[in-house]
Amino acid sequence: MRSPLLFITAALSAASIALAQSSTFVGCYLLSASLSFSLFTNVANAGLCRNYCFGQNNLYAFYSTTPFPLQPNCFCSALHITSLGLSPTVGSQTTCSGLGQFHMYDLQTTFVNAGCNNGGTVTLNPADVSNPQTLSGSLQDCFSFCANYLHVLATPGTLLTGLLGIWTCKCLNNLPTMSQGATCTSSNPYLFSHPLSATGQARRRVIQDRRNHQQLMAANPYCPPGRAACNVSPDITDGYECLNVAHELESCGGCKYGHYRINGTGTIGIDCTAIEGVDRHAVGCFRGECAVLRCMSGYTLENGACYRTLSIEA
Question: Coiled coil where (predicted)?
Answer without folding.
Answer: none
